[in-house]
Structures are given as C-alpha cells and as structure tokens.
Amino acid sequence: MEDTVTATIRYAQRDATRNASEKPYILHYAAPEGFPQNNFTIKPVHGIKIRNLRTAGISYEEHGIQLASLKDSSQMHDAQKFDDDDWVESVYLPELHRSISEALGARDVTVFDWMIRKRARSFPIRNVGDENEDAHQPSLSAHIDYTTAELDSRVDQYFGDSKDAMLSRHYQVINIWKPLSGPCRDFPMAYLDPRSVNAAKDLFAVDEVFPTVANEVFQVSYSPDHVWYYVPDQLESEITIFNAFDSEKGQSLAVPHCSFDLGAAGSSGPPRQSIEVRAFVFF
Fold first, then answer.
1. How does the average pLDDT of the chain come out, rounded?
2. Sheet of strand 273-282: strand arrangement
3. Residue 68 and residue 102: Cα distance in Å, rounded?
4. Which helix or strand (DSSP H or E) is residue 166 part of?
5. Name one GO molecular function term (predicted).
6. Which residue from 157, 161, 188, 184 is spatially nearest to 173, judged by alpha carbons?
C-alpha cells in the first residue's frame, strides 16, 4: 500500500477583479435565466500529494482527524440497509454514538444531520437518466462545512432554551464519514491538515444557497504549504472523524475536506456510496 498518491484537488480561486461588495455564493438549484449560478470560480490543481492517514502517525488532539472502527460492525456490511431511514436512525446512529464516545472519550453525542451520497456513473457530468442522477453526489471542492457565524446560528436552532447549559460545557462539532461498502477506492475523501492552513489567507466565507435556506461555509484557496491525507481502502466498518469546531480552540483544528479521483487505482470498484453524519460531542 503506497504511503502517498498524487491527485487533483479542486480549490476556489480568489479573484481580485470580482466585486468586493458582493459576497461569494453558489446556488444549489437552477438559477433564473441570466443569473449566474455562482460568482466565484473553482479550478483543479494538479499534482497534489495526498498521504496515507493510516501510517501518518497524527493525532486527533493535534490535527483534528482520526480513523476509528465501529464497535459492532456486523450490521454495517449491507449497503442497502442505509436506504431505510428508520434503520439508520434506530441502528446505525446509536452504534455510531457508542463508537464516537469510545474513540474521543466523549460523555455525550448529539447528531443533528446525516446524508447519504451515491455517485452517478457519469459524475461529475451527471447524464440525464443516469442511475443516482438525483442523489447527493461527492463534494469535489475543498471546504469546511461551517463558519463560526453559521455554527452560532445552529446552536440557537438546535438547543433553544438549553443553549446556555450547552455552552457551559466543553464541546466540539464533528463530521463522521464512512463508505457503505469497502474497500473504498472510488472518489475517497481527502482531509487537509488544519495545521498547514493559514486561515486568513486560505479560507473565505461563501453562502451556499438552497431554495429555502442559505448556509455559510468556508471555501479553500490553494497553498503549496497544504498537507493532505486520505484513508486507503477504507472499509465499511471504519469511520473517519474530523473536527469542525472546538469550544475551547475555535476553528483552529477545523479540517477542510473534499472527495478526489484516484484515477486508474479507483476505476475497478463500483461507484461510491457513503454516509456522513454531523454531531455535537460533549466532554
């Protein structure tokens, strides 16, 4: 198993000619005729070295990324079970709760969002009529799911009257990702070491606009200092936990991430299916 692969990562481009008074945005629905779908550009950067997380020797405490195993993986080998929302809620999420608590030493876990992705074979083009054309697809641009301002609004939304009690505890916001079947070689996840990110230069806030809501995220600009990792041949029994916010450290350990194409090394397997979960963890 190679310790490093060379691949392409898609980065947002800073454009000095763009109207500085107009906040960057991207629409996640068909824009009205004559209205731009987005007002910034994402371009591929080739020749990025992506290291093997399994052998990297990094820690969650210092780098915000950790590979862990599900405590009871016996029910996780049937990808079709994840098509049943009730099964996910009643079986997978409780199992995930136990595994996260053990891996991070958390006292409690509150899941607030989860999503299944199923790659269409024609992705990223997505031909009309293609299987899984309408499913959530892998996210290809390097990003962080939340800005601090976005998380502040989420705390109000999710915790309401218990907000003050929640904020008095040490907590983190985390993402948990796993393939529904493994080994995953088709568009695996890449994780950017936050210690290699200059937040002031590399991150900028973007509004992701949906029909009924807008979420503020960070897009990432390229830097030669960036250090990337991935999990070769990740199994359905393995989860990658990565940080988005820490109540004591802020977003200094927030991990930018995206999917990437392994090329010929990933072409032999079926199109990727995966589940990602977002949660508050309390210590």
1. 91
2. 65-69, 238-246, 171-179, 273-282, 108-118
3. 9
4. helix 163-167
5. oxidoreductase activity
6. 157
What domains are there in the chain, each with its CATH number?
Answer: 4-282 (2.60.120)
Q: Please answer whether residues 264 and 224 qualify as being in contact, where contact means their C-beta atoms are separated by less than 8 angstroms.
A: no
Please report, as a single letter, which amino acid is at residue 94. Answer: P
Neighbours of 125 (CB within 10 A): 8
Give the separation between CA 4 and CA 50, rounded to whole angstroms: 5
Nearest residue to 176 (alpha-carbon basis) of 265, 86, 106:
106
Q: How many CA atoms lie within 13 A of 279 on its CB side?
A: 23
Distance CA 142, CA 256 (A): 6
Q: What is the pLDDT of residues 87-118, one digit of tens each?
A: 999 999 999 999 999 999 999 999 999 999 99
266 pLDDT higher than 70: no
Contact 229, 51 (CB under 8 A): yes
**Strands 228-230 and 25-27: what pairing?**
unpaired
CB distance 259 to 50 below 8 Å: no
> Cα 182–183–189 angle (5° rounding)?
95
The CB density around residue 215, as the number of other CB atoms within 10 Å, is: 16
